[in-house]
Amino acid sequence: MSEFLVPLVITAIFGGVVSLDRTCFGQFMVSRPIVAAPLLGLFLGYPNEAVFIGLVYELLFLRSLPVGAHVPYHPLYPSLIAVLITVVTARSGLGTLQSASAAIILSLPSSVVDRVVDLSWRRSNERLVTRATAYVRLEKFRAARAIHFVSLGRYFLMNTVSLFLAGIFLVTICSYLFSAYPRISLLFAGAGVVPLFVGLAGLTSGKVRGKAWLGFTFGLAAGVLVSLGIRL
Amino acid sequence: MKLSFKDRAGFVLKSLFLQGSWSFRHMQGLGFFYSISGWLERNVEDGTRSALRRHLGFFNTHPFMAPYLIGVVARLEKEGDPLGSISAKDNLMSPLAALGDSLFWGSLRPMFIIIGLGISLHTPWLGIAYILVSFNLFNIWTRWTLLGKGFDNARNPLDFITDRNFRGAIQGAQLIIIPALGFLLGLAAFRFESPGVSIVIFGLSLLLFSRGWGTFRTFSVVFVAVVILGWMGFGLEVTWLPWK
């Protein structure tokens, strides 16, 4: 039980804290999957697989931008849950370390939960300015400022609880799948790598136009040479 | 008139919480109020309450560019020009948002991440550290500098928007992003042990972007494609990563 519960609680609390970086505080990039997933993996003892998960999710979601009132799908939940699934299944002997690829695919739908939580938090904030105005009218300026932090605390709690519940749901499903179909992680092993390249391709398509192809080809050639050089 | 170090640091710290209570109705309104209210309490002697109410409403701009407007409003309110502060805020928040979105979200963030990912393929933790340090140096430096510029240029705040340095920074970042993308693709595709797999992956990627795979709004399609490819049994193992 502790093999499941301890990582789940760590993931939920870590996710709650890190989610603040996404909108509420700073935007220091800590909530990006390339940072958040390896950090969680480090806490849970599987940093290498977590780096791979973070890398794949980062590329898949790099183009989803929070412009104006648009709330894009965010890769925080799926990347953290993918790390959790990898750790839990590996520790309980259901999956192998290669199950990271399967975890990437199976945790992807949790980005929908992530977005629903974010949207409901934003909607729940709509009355805060009215409350703050009432406090200003009463000259309770500190109370007006404190409302801002109530919202921040609520964001942390909503994300922690949602991650906990989404984690239970997805880890249970994956544990069942991995025990019922032991070869599933092998089937998904290649699929985990594909988003990495789909992500790169999607990222490149809008940008490489006209003369930019020259720079792109130069970079591509350099990359291939460095890659082959490293292997040799 | 100059901002003291303490005031400046306080504004920058508070600006980090600008989106702490983001809502669809007032967007960053309460965050802006939180950032400026302490200053208004200390510096607007007559009518603190009405000054606070003036700045408790709708506000939305790019979070990294907001300190510029905080600086402008702080100066104008201290000089007793409430109408000027409201007009500057209303007129500048949208252009600053557009500028910030294209500079930070559209150019600098992808640039730092792509370079960081390239480093990560070789030394993961170095790549992650690079992304965090480089982006956040820009983040804090921008907030700190813009706050001072806003306070100094409060009477002519539009001068800053027409600054050519911004356009140069965006074009410079775009110039780096494209070769870096090519480099990352080349680096990643040819790290497989099997040359056949490299060629398939490489060809798939080239095909996708040459056919104009522009957006990821339809990520359900990607998901289905990924699952199908997985079930087709690509058979790759994740042992191609150098740190395994």
Provide keyphrases for this structure.
heterodimer; A: 232 residues; mainly alpha; 2 domains; B: 244 residues; 10 helices; elongated; disordered C terminus
> Which structural class do you get from the secondary structure elements of chain A?
mainly alpha
Element string of chain A (H = helix, E = strand)? HHHHHHHHHHH
Sheet of most strands of chain B = none
- Greatest interface: A-B, 96 and 100 residues
**Number of helix segments of chain A?**
11
Q: Give unreliable regions of chain A as ranges.
A: none
Question: How would you describe the oligomerization state of the chains in this entry?
Answer: heterodimer
Low-confidence regions of chain B = 210-220, 230-244
Q: Kindly state the mean pLDDT of chain A as a whole number?
A: 83
Approximate strand percentage of chain B:
under 5%
Radius of gyration of chain A, in Å, reads 21 Å
Describe this structure in words.
The complex is a heterodimer of chains A (232) and B (244). Chain A has 232 residues and is mainly α. Chain A has two domains: 180 residues, no CATH class; 50 residues. Chain A contains eleven helices and no strands. In chain A, helix 1 packs across helix 8, helix 3 packs antiparallel against helix 4 and helix 6 runs antiparallel to helix 8. By secondary structure, chain B is mainly α. Chain B has ten helices and no strands. Classes of the chains: A mainly alpha (232), B mainly alpha (244). Chains A and B meet through helix 2, helix 3, helix 5, helix 7 and helix 8 of A and helix 2, helix 3, helix 5, helix 6 and helix 8 of B.
Task: Give a quick summary of the entry.
The complex is a heterodimer of chains A (232) and B (244). Chain A has 232 residues and is mainly α. Chain A has helices spanning 2-22, 33-44, 47-61, 76-91, 99-107, 110-124, 128-137, 141-180, 184-189, 194-205, 212-231.
Please give the structural blueprint.
The complex is a heterodimer of chains A (232) and B (244).
Chain A (H helix, E strand, L loop, with lengths): L1 H21 L10 H12 L2 H15 L14 H16 L7 H9 L2 H15 L3 H10 L3 H40 L3 H6 L4 H12 L6 H20 L1
Helix pairs in contact in A: 1-2, 1-4, 1-8, 2-3, 2-4, 3-4, 3-10, 4-5, 4-6, 4-8, 6-8, 7-8
Chain B lengths: L4 H11 L13 H15 L4 H7 L11 H13 L3 H41 L1 H29 L5 H4 L2 H26 L5 H16 L8 H13 L13
